[in-house]
């Protein structure tokens, strides 16, 4: 317990850093994922191409390489932001590709007749998607969206290598202070476990309330 009690503020700072990264990157991933899923099922060909390219590139790019591209590449084009914001952009964009595919699979489970009925009532594509298709699709994709955001929380550990305050990065300071690396990692793992179990609990409640009965 000495590792935790004597360095509680350090652990707390890292824990809060990981929570902030997870929350902000999750919000960005959900917004971009929804947008790209809409593009992938849109009747406009150029939108479908954009959505496909976005998903294909990001899903097949290592996250570490994406961090290098964002944190080291964007400043060369004059975009200078705090490293934490760069990390949010990298994590959010990367995860949005997976959210997009999850949402698209949910959209494909909605019978085509639902969309045809909406269009027969005079609804356009945006109205059909937002008021008819997505509410039904959302109910079937709650568990996989939760799993994707749990993966995002764990992927945030990469940010520590780029001078971003987060939980895993605390082991460097603890190691320099001479604390046992094993116990340092045990308490770091406990912190990640708290975050992931919290996300899991939230999505379990959502699934029980809105999920599709199997």
Automatic annotation (TrEMBL):
ABC transmembrane type-1 domain span: 15-207
Membrane topology designation: Multi-pass membrane protein
Matching entries from Pfam families are given as: BPD_transp_1
Membrane as UniProt keyword: yes
Chief location category: membrane
- What subcellular locations does the record give? Cell membrane
- The answer to keyword Plastid applying to this record is no
Keyword vocabulary terms for this entry: Amino-acid transport, Cell membrane, Membrane, Transmembrane, Transmembrane helix, Transport
Q: Which residues cross the membrane?
A: 21-41, 53-72, 79-99, 181-206
Q: Which family does it belong to?
A: Belongs to the binding-protein-dependent transport system permease family. HisMQ subfamily.
What is the protein name stated in its UniProt record?
Answer: Amino acid ABC transporter permease
Q: What species does this protein belong to? A: Streptomyces pakalii
């Amino acid at each position: 317990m000495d590792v935790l009690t004597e360095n509680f503020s350090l652990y707390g700072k890292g824990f809060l850093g990981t929570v902030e990264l997870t929350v902000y990157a999750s919000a960005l991933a959900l917004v971009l994922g929804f947008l790209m899923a809409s593009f992938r099922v849109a009747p406009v060909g150029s939108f479908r191409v954009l959505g496909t390219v976005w998903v294909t590139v990001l899903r097949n790019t290592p996250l570490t390489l994406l961090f290098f591209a964002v944190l080291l590449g964007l400043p060369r084009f004059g975009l200078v932001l705090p490293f934490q914001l760069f990390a949010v952009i990298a994590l959010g964009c990367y995860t949005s590709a997976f959210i997009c595919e999850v949402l698209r699979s949910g959209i494909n489970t909605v019978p085509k007749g639902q969309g045809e009925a909406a269009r027969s009532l005079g609804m356009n594509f945006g109205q059909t998607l937002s008021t008819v298709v997505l509410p039904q699709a959302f109910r079937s994709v709650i568990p996989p969206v939760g799993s994707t955001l749990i993966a995002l929380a764990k992927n945030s550990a990469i940010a520590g290598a780029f001078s971003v305050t987060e939980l895993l990065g605390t082991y460097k300071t603890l190691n320099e202070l001479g604390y046992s690396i094993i116990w340092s990692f045990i308490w770091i793992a406990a912190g990640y476990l708290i975050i992931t179990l919290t996300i899991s609990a939230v999505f379990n409640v959502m699934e029980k309330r809105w999920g599709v009965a199997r």
